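Not sure how to ask, but would you mind making up any protein sequence you like and the tokens describing how it folds?
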Amino acid sequence: MTSSTALPERAGRRCQSALNSFHAMHYFSPELSTELAKTGIEDSAAVYLATRAAAMGAVGPGAVTAAFYNFSHTLVARHVPHIWSVAAPRTVLDARLRVADTSLRRLMGDAALESAEMAEAARLALRAAEACTPYARPLFAAHADLPVPDAPHLALWHAATLLREHRGDGHLMTLLDAELDAVEALVTHTASGRGMSFEWIMRTRGWSEEEWAAAQDRLRGRGLLDAAGGLTPAGEQLRKDLEDATDRLDRAPYEHLGAAGVARLTELTAGFVTPAMAAGAFPADLFGKS
């Protein structure tokens, strides 16, 4: 049942942030490279591309570039569709679910995964996801076609994935509306201090330093970036507007859950994520302007 109680400002964003962390830990786990290597996929870029794209089926590079947005098409085409000749999407999805299970158990412990709180969080997150819609949201829609796992911690991980991709698909709409191309979106996010660090972007997204510098020049021409590479007041306002617009496009699942449900889901998920992060779930240099 949808609550009529208005959500506090940014409550959905805070909830989604905790859920996104719960989802994203598996991308940085040693279990992922181990499991994907068993399928024959060993290159680190190919591992990520296969893992996140598999729900869409054996798609070509154009579909992956479109859905991921901030990856170089050259990098994507280097691995897609070849990865599907190495491991079928269903094989990758099965491996991914095993990784979610083993990495969450390592980071959180069996007691947390088997707790009443985990089962409650899964129920709340799945309820929120009921209000998500597939239209113009390819990554959400593809994952929504997958079955919900039985185990509560995997059901929460699945729901967190749905909610993460639903917000992400909507965020791409706001980037296009702001006329930020793939590299410009990365540059402004990193300059905000809230995106991935420059080193991680260069390591994973496939762009060259020349392409990065050219994007910075274009942004300076629009008055969004200063000479030192930081955001100007106009750039800061743009990033704020992007997040606010993303909140608006992503409000349905959290309005459906209601204020009390959103607060409880945020509390529960943060309670699982915080010790996992302290245990090293994410690299220390992943975020920031460095």
Residues 152-177 form the longest helix (26 residues). The chain is about 70% helix and 0% strand. Residues 70 and 136 are 17 Å apart (CA to CA).
